Structure formats: C-alpha cells, structure tokens
Amino acid sequence: ALQGSYKVETLQGSVTVKPFMEILSAHLDRNYTAEQAGQITGLSSRMIEQLAREVATAKGVVNISTANWGKCYHGDLIERAILMVFALCGHMGRKGATFSAFPMMGLDTSLGGLEKRGDQIILSAAGGDPRFAQWREEGFTDEMILYEYVHQAFSSGGVTPTSLMYYIHGGILDLCAKHPEWDPDIKRPIKEYVREAFDKKWQFLSPGLDKEPKVMFALGGNFLRRARCTNTLIEKFLPKLRLLVSIDWRWNSSALYADLVLPACSWYEKTSTFLMGMPVQPFVHMVNQATEPLYDSMGEWKMFCLLARKVEERASERGIPSYKDANGVEHRFAGLEEKVTFGGLYSEDDEEGIARDAFLNSSNVEQIDWEEFKERGIARYTGVGTGMRSIGNTCDIVPGEPVVPLTWHTERKDPYPTLTRRIQFLIDHELFRELGEDLPVHKDPPPAGGDYPLKLTGGHARWSIHSDQVDETLLLQLQRGGPLMFMSAKDALSREIRDGDTVAVSNDVASFQVQAAVSPGVRPGQVIIYHAWENYQFDGWRHFKSVMASPMNPVELAGDYFQIRPITMSNYPGFSDRGTRVEVRRAGA
Questions:
Q1: For residues 131 and 120, what is the distance between their CA atoms, to the nearest angstrom?
Q2: Are residue 195 and residue 63 in the same domain, yes or no?
Q3: Does 441 fall in a domain?
C-alpha cells in the first residue's frame, strides 16, 4: 500500500504507521505546491507544472551533475530532491533513464599490494572474517560487504578525509565558529556538532582532534590552490607542519610553499596506465613515454623505490629496527625496499613493468596484449568489477552499448546498499531530524562570508587543461593573460567599474584583487571566477579562494547509519564555495 494508515503490533504494543508515500505527499502538499515553488525560484507556477509533466511523461530522462552540487552548501538537499523526482518518475536503471553524479570505474587488478581485487577481499573474508556469515545472513551483497571494509579503513585511521583535516587543523572550523550567522538554521555551536560526531564515532580523523599533523606529502594534489579558505590554511595549517614535501612536475603553489620538492617527470616522460575511468567514458587509458625525463626529474615509481631504500639504510645506521603506527602495529624497516618492489620483481627503472602487469592482471577490461594496448592507447572496460571505487555502478557492461548504472537493482532486484535496502529518501537519523532534513527540503544558500550583496560562483576553465597549463603563455594569449572575474553590466555600472579595471573583492574572511570582465551575460548579483588560477597569479599571492568561507554543514557530520558512514569521497564534511557572499569595488577607490 502507498497510502493510508495502519495498525501494527510491536513488542511495545500497537502503533499506527503510514507508508512513506503518505508522509511524502503530505510534506509536498504542505510545503511545495507549484505556487510555493514559484515563490522560491522566481519561476511561474505554470512553467513549473509544465516541466514536472514533461519529466513525468518522458520515456526517459538522463542527468549528469558531475561534482557540481557538492560545491553548494546545501548541495546534498538539491541532489536528494533531484534523485527523488527521478525515482518517482521511474527514470532509474534503464537505458535513456538514469541519474549520474560522479561515478567512477577502476581496474580490477591483482598486482600484489598495488591493488587488491574486491573478489579477493570477499574470498578472504569468507574464509577468515567471523562477521562474514552474519553479513550474508542479513542479506548483504558483495557491494555492501566491500563498503564495510572501507568504513573500517576510515575508523582505523588507514584513510582520512583531507577536507576534515583542513577544517580541524587548518583554522577553518575556528573561523566558522566565530560566524554562526553564516548558517542561521543550525541549532547549536558548530564545534558542539563536531565534538558529538567524534564522541559518537560518526566521523574519524587521523591525526585526531587533539593531535596536530607534523609531516605532509602533497602528491600532485596542489592543495594550496584547490582548498577553500586558502590564506587561512597558509596562516594556520602550514605553521603546524615540521615538514611539507611536494611531489609534482611543476612549480605550482603548493611546491612554492613546500620545504622539499621532489621533481616528478610529466606524462610523456614515462609509460603509465591510468587506473580510473567513468561510465560516461568506459575506457582504460595509457600514456606512452615519448622522451626521457628532464634534468633530475623521475617517475613516481622510481622515486618511491629510492625513498624506501634510503629509509631502510638510515634506520639501519641509526639502530632503529622498527616503528609502531597509530594503531600500535609494529612495522620493521628491514626489507622495506624488498616489499615495495614485490620481492625485487620490479626495479626502480621498471615503471613500464608495473603499468604493464597492472593492465594484464585485470579481470574487467578487454583482453589484448600489452603492445596492442600501447599502440591503441585505450582499452574498453568489460565489467564494473569488484573494486570499491566502481562496484556501486551495479550493472553489466555490454560492448558497443551505453553503460546503464543500477540495472542490477532495477532488473535483477538486488537490494540497494541502504538501511531499507531500497532507494531511501526518509533519513531517520537524529542529526537529520534536528536540522529538519529527514525529508528532502529546500533551504536558501546561507550568507557564507558575511552580509554582502554579490554571490561568487565558478566552474571549470575553458582555456586550460584543468590547472596544469593555467600559466602557459600560449594559452594565456587566448584570453586576457591572467585571472579574470566576470560581473554583470548592471553591478559594474552601480560601482563605477569598467571592463578591464582591477577590482578588490572582499568579505569577512579575506580579500584579493583581480581584473574585471563586464558582461551582459552575467546575472545581476552574481560574479564568476573560473577555476585553476595559481596563488602567484594574484597580487600578494592572495588567492581568490581565500574569500570562500566554506562553513561546515553539520548534517555532513552524521554517521553510524548504514549508508551514511564515511566512505571514499562521501559522507564527511566537504568544502563549499558556490554562493559565497562578497563585495566588489574598484581597486584603490
């Protein structure tokens, strides 16, 4: 039954229950009629009803949101609402009807310690983990069991979310605590939510709340460009580190702040297999070496082999036989290089051997030999595999056909990895209830950064290849040669700003200067900066992300609720930047 109310006998006595659709219908009728939605969005109720009918009656609707909503403070609510519309209209798990957020695929390779296939983990668990039989008894699929091991890695400190580390140890949480007005909907001080999350083991962090990080290796992530509240991190996080090591192929922002820079060679100076793919482009890629590495640069494989050798040598010289990790497990230094190189199977100069065997030992990619793969450059995935990054696609891959996620649920009727074993929109968690988000709701973007009239948004740049060529001279000639902020003609006129002026952008967090591009295509009240600009491209190295207050959303601290527990790239606090409040004026005015 989808409607009505019913009496159910429980161990505590008789209770009245309602189907979820009854609760949802009342919620929508009470809060989200077409007229009410029009007041929120500024659209006419007629247009809203027309769109609703088109979505409901369409043969199929496809959506690809990539990482967009995750950059909004209430992006989880937005995405839950979109998913609910898709589910109610049946646009899930069939060709031409699916929702994609940021799904990934990975090689199911069995190359020693480099990667462990999910089916190997399942086999090992069946023979040695006493929890396995209970999981199977409770109807756990392989996907659910694999997620249990990811949760275990988080709880043991084997994996830690860097965004949460920057909040706690980088001064951003302290900044949020000083400005509770940034989110008027929260009921308690933000630090109280954080303490509760750690006390109840909803969230995990290594090092923990009361232990500062001391050494950091930044491997290709360029966190001082990517993270929000950039200058807050520089002022609060970097002084806590005894050592910052950057491993990269160029002098990016993080490298310029590092104590040591280990020069990695770039793509075409080594042969490598790219282990990650996506359902929208289900191919494994490889990069062929075209030239020798320049100067002292080398591939990461060689770098790690040499580091392992040197650590083993120094430990022996100093008479240090072993060390204990954060969980008290002892590790011996003797034989470290032997372990890293798989018993000497791969020398430090055999980076291609690692790439070759990672590919040839994979079970979910078309079977072609290495030389053919090198010639073609791509190979098609033949299955999602059992890797923890990709098994959640839960579908078969048919050569020549589109990848359609979730068909194992819609066609085979496999249970979803949720508490109810179905697509779940009512989240009966105490934190969701406290914040009024147990059902999908609308909440306005908070005034993150302060009470200022303009909202800063952004997106991926069109003139660079991500951040790697953002300071490339030839590419910069395709535009104005440096960082640029787009603003509406109306907002520029009211501030006496002309196209090409240098402007100062500021809020309660920080300020920076940038060139203004006045455009009639920008909505009044909005300013746009596309991503990738390096810190050193701004006056005084004050990066545009310094103003991005990125207040912590307390609902993201929820945990211990089956599908809502920390897992790779999900279910822990992340940064937000869309809608940051700022003011703009002519520099020097």
A1: 16
A2: no
A3: no
In a shared domain, residues 171 and 235: yes
Q: What is the largest CA-CA distance in the chain?
A: 78
* Tens digit of each residue's pLDDT (9 = 90 or more) over 451-464: 999 999 998 877 67
- DSSP secondary structure letters along 118-148: HHHHHHHHHHH-THHHHHHHTT--HHHHHHH
The mean of the pLDDT values for the chain is: 93
Q: Pick from 376, 402, 434: which residue ends a domain?
A: 434
- Nearest in space to 71 (alpha carbons), one of 584, 553, 555: 553
Which tokens go with 334? 């003797």
Helix and strand numbers (H, E) in the chain are 21, 20
How does pLDDT run across 322-332, given as a tens digit for each residue? 999 888 899 99
Hunting for tokens 């007041």 — which residue is that? 39
CA nearest 232: which of 281, 298, 161, 178? 178
Is 173 found in the same domain as 30?
Answer: no
Q: Which domain holds residue 60?
A: 6-103+412-434
171 and 53 housed in the same domain: no
| Dist. CA 584–CA 507, nearest whole Å | 9
Predicted TM-score of the model (pTM): 0.93
Q: Is 194 exposed, middle or buried (0-12, 13-18, 19+ CB in 10 A)?
A: buried
Q: What is the structure's pLDDT at 118? A: 65
